[in-house]
Design brief:
This protein is of the alpha/beta class. The chain contains 13 helices and 15 strands. 39% of the residues lie in helices and 17% in strands. It starts with a strand and ends with a strand. Bound molecules: beta-D-galactopyranose.
């Protein structure tokens, strides 16, 4: 059986600056690694050395026939100290984006992907409302210097994971365990920052004469399923969905603050031109003891057969991707960009079937009328998986961390072939 990948679905891969670039001493993840907070005492300082290998990596993207590339700009490379702009950093990103455009690869730029400059960390980062103004100033700078080169921006990557991993689990820089006050302060600040940047980016580009600007939100979308039939837990699931998704979707898309906040952050309107979907797996909710989770315990499905799980023990659950997208699309009717979808799989044995099964879900959605316009595989290269270090390997391209040599995986060749043939073939059962 054959599935057609429509031309309207642009295919690409995604990365984030801190995870691949290396060489930056001014961001808070470097500081965090110096504090021994990354598994095996690993550090972001070399990563994939992408900063020095941009040309080589764009050649690799070309050889994979990528149509688009989602990348992020490292704030500390542009503004290493408060109010001091780095001409070197600015030039680097302009050159990188020019190279992408010349290679026929459309850039999608993320303005905040988990990391901040150390000077921002020093003022308590997103828990401090001053960070909103500083971020807006940084965004103004970036959008102005990128000018006509980039018309599509993601503001803040996965604010829901960011606040959870920083202020609940304490795994990210400045992290604290169970600091609910900071959790909510940072959430509100990120929502405000998104809405302000939405208007700002549109205005800046309009003043430059462009009316093709698209600015989107990029939440992490978990597919929650109940592991119990007890009726009370339906409420638990609703509550968890609201805390993890609702607050951010309503806040960032509608400018509306919902429980436990009150009021609005902006006048009535829609503050997103597309919805970025970062989807990886299904999460189960079992009865638990945590009152903060309304007695729910969120965990990955246990005792999964080998072929149903990734190296990080995440369940491979493609149906979840279509469920979360359908729900969002029915509610907002906004174009969908799948901004991240991928698998940690060091030996590459499951990546082809992972990509195939998730893309088939996407094709079925498109055929049923859902406006899905992008698919970005996470990730182009193996990279620093935040506090999990270099163990998990998500790349279409393998990176040897001793020699920094890149090797396209079999799945990378498969992905290239999909993009070129625009067809997925599966054996009839
Ligand atoms: C996302 C994150 C990425 C990447 C990915 C794989 O939450 O945005 O940076 O690490 O997960 O786990």
């Amino acid at each position: 059986m054959k599935y057609k990948i429509p031309k309207s679905l642009l295919m690409g891969a995604a990365t984030a600056a801190t995870q691949i670039e290396g060489g930056d001493y001014n961001n808070n993840w470097y500081q965090w690694s110096q504090m021994g907070m990354i598994d095996n005492n690993e550090s972001s300082i070399v990563a994939c050395d992408h900063w020095n290998r941009v040309e080589e990596d764009i050649e690799l993207m070309k050889s994979l026939s990528l149509e688009t590339y989602r990348m992020s700009i490292e704030w500390s490379r542009i503004e290493p100290k408060n109010g001091e702009w780095s001409e070197e950093g600015i030039k680097h990103y302009i050159d990188e984006i020019d190279m992408l455009i010349s290679a026929g690869i459309k850039p999608l730029v993320t303005l905040h992907h988990f990391s901040s400059p150390i000077w921002i960390q020093d003022i308590d980062a997103w828990a401090n409302k001053k960070t909103v103004d500083y971020f807006v100033r940084f965004v103004e700078k970036v959008v102005t210097f990128l000018g006509e080169r980039v018309n599509e921006y993601c503001t803040i990557n996965e604010p829901n994971v960011f606040v959870n991993d920083t202020y609940m689990d304490g795994k990210y820089p400045g992290g604290e365990k169970g600091n609910i006050i900071k959790y909510f302060k940072a959430s509100k600040n990120m929502i405000k920052a998104h809405v302000l940047c939405y208007d700002l980016i549109h205005k800046l580009r309009k003043d430059l004469g462009f009316d093709d600007t698209l600015v989107g939100v990029v939440p992490h979308l978990a597919y929650f399923d109940l592991n119990t039939k007890r009726p009370f837990f339906k409420l638990t699931k609703k509550f968890i969905n609201q805390s993890f998704h609702g607050i951010f979707l309503k806040g960032m898309i509608e400018g509306r603050l919902t429980f436990p906040f009150m009021g609005r952050v902006a006048k009535k309107g829609i503050y997103s031109d597309f919805i970025g979907v970062n989807y990886y797996t299904r999460s189960m909710i079992s009865p638990g003891k945590d009152i903060g989770m309304l007695f729910g315990d969120v965990h990955y499905k246990k005792n999964l057969p080998e072929d149903k799980k990734t190296d990080l023990e995440w369940e491979i659950y493609p149906e979840g991707l279509s469920s979360v997208i359908e729900e969002l699309y029915n509610k907002y009717k906004l174009p969908i960009y799948i901004t991240e979808n991928g698998i940690a799989n060091a030996d590459d044995s499951k990546r082809i079937s992972f990509i195939r099964s998730h893309l088939i879900e996407v094709i079925k959605l498109i055929e049923s009328g859902v406006d899905v316009r992008r698919y970005y595989y996470w990730s182009l290269l193996d990279n620093l998986e935040w506090n999990d270090g270099y163990g998990p390997r998500f790349g279409l391209i393998h990176v040897d961390y001793n020699t920094l040599e890149r090797t396209i995986q079999e799945s990378g060749h498969y992905f290239k072939n999909l993009i070129e043939s625009r067809e997925i073939e599966i054996d009839e059962e």
